[in-house]
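User: What would this chain look like folded?
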Amino acid sequence: GSGALSVKVIPDGPTRVLQICDLNQRKNNFSSGQEEFPTTESELRKMMNPDTDQELEVIVKLKDGIGLSLVNKVPEELIFTSLKKINIHFTQTAASQVLELGVDVVQVDNQLLGTTHPIMLSLTPHTDENEVVEEGPALQLTAMKIPSRSPLTDLFKHLMITARKFTVHIEEKLLMKLISFFGYGQPESEIEKLDEIIHEKSTEQSGPQRRLYFENLKVNVPQIKLSVYTSNKLPPDLKALKSTLGFPLIRFEDAVIDLDPYIRVHPYETQEFIVADVLKHFQEELMSQAAKILGSVDFLGNPVGLLNDVSEGVSGLIKYGNVGGLIRNVTHGVSNSAAKFAGTLSDGLGKTMDLRHQTEREFIRYQAATSGEHFVAGIHGLAHGIIGGLTSVITSTVEGVKTDGGVSGFIAGLGRGLVGTVTKPVAGALDFASETAQAVRETASLSGHRLQNQRVRMPRCCRGPQGLLPQYSDTQAEGQELLFKLTDNIQAEFFIAVEHIDSYCVIISSEAVYFLKNKDSVDRDAIFLEVKYDDLYHCLVSKDHGKVYVQLTKKAVNTASGVAIPGPSHQKPMVHVKSESLAVKLSQEINYAKSLFSEQHLMLRPFENEHSDL
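Assistant: Here's the prediction, encoded as structure tokens.
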């Protein structure tokens, strides 16, 4: 050769190639017009980015962030994801593309009405006063991409995804609804259509697949505090879906799961393979923590939680001489274990009871969980169990005759009643013990870290007057929450409108109109006038001595012709309204809801149509 060699290191997909060539031969090839692929990094960058003098920098800051609402076909809102204080910094030069993404606050809310655990995912709060406070964004992504000479290869210097410690509360009812929303348990016809679409896409994308190369790939989710809450009462469709899953859920709380990060050096795979590998890694990490999960189950009294509370108190005593912290932590751990053990026994007995009694027990627990008055709820639960036991034989027998009919229904109802005579008072006593222990636990939880977070916003009203999804409204969300507290069954009776007046408010639903006194706590006792649309003839605006009223005219009790006519004067209740414009608006809304009610009753239901074809 010429004695002069050119030695260069160039990228070739995921590998580095050492290229050695004769310098004079290279120059001769270049002068003769032969095309040669660039051999230096600068030449490669010029080829990939002809305009090398231009640089791009994009900075995006979203202080209030973004929110994502997930609504199913019922319709009802399932979850609301809130991402706040988002910072995005993107830089593009001839040498690289760099993306830095940070989200300071991440929270996923359980938006089901009546839930006792409204937060599904949130940052784990600071627990130990003497612990170093963890700083930084809740979720951070850093990526650096460099040019590639292959159109089927993306080269990354690094990709790092880092998260802080999260607390996750999974409620069985919400989990089943989410699984159903994302398509699991679909009819076979739908699955076949989906398979055909996937097959068509795979045939269209046949050939070489795009691959990703990373010098360093890291996904770090250091710790998850996981809780799972089972439901005693699921709708029939969710019960059927649960049976197809093949595994039962076990109730446990605050299982601390430490996860090793996913780290790979120089992987060169497809995007699908890398995502599947990440999921497999964290699935194996969860399986390796089975002992911690088992130690946190409720039917064992959460022994791991008790041990953590005691160790935290002892550590504070040894390091800082905190005697009060030791007493508080031990009290919290013991009462927490007692509450969970008694609650598990009570739930086991509850499975032998009739649906009405079990529903009333669940409502008492819901009131305790939302108001924090556990001791009062315990007394109510004990009284409810005793009264249920005394009347069990009569109520269960009557219900058995109504449901099953004949002698068989009578015998079955009588048997359930005799069993309930014993189990209902025992379950009531266990409810009292569980709620009392929870009251002690809450009293011992003086530190703010055990206080429950709040939803970012109330569950949205998903039904507009015409059946369309309306824009989110705080007023409608509040009205829907009030209606749920009054009826405890939002699916059968949905919210239409609410009007707040000086000393009362009016809730208009699909079944009735409610006039409520303004109180701190809303319940059935707050209703001073309730009119069902079945009994309502029409609503009018009336004036008397300069005052404006809304008059709700009821139908006559009996008519010989069978045609609805207005009832007598004592069946025309009137409510004072402060202005005529508000009275007109209120009467229009009530009459509109009444017309919707009438249309719904004249509509042929799908199941009725199916039966008529048989």
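The two ends are 93 Å apart (CA to CA). If you want, I can go into more detail on any region.
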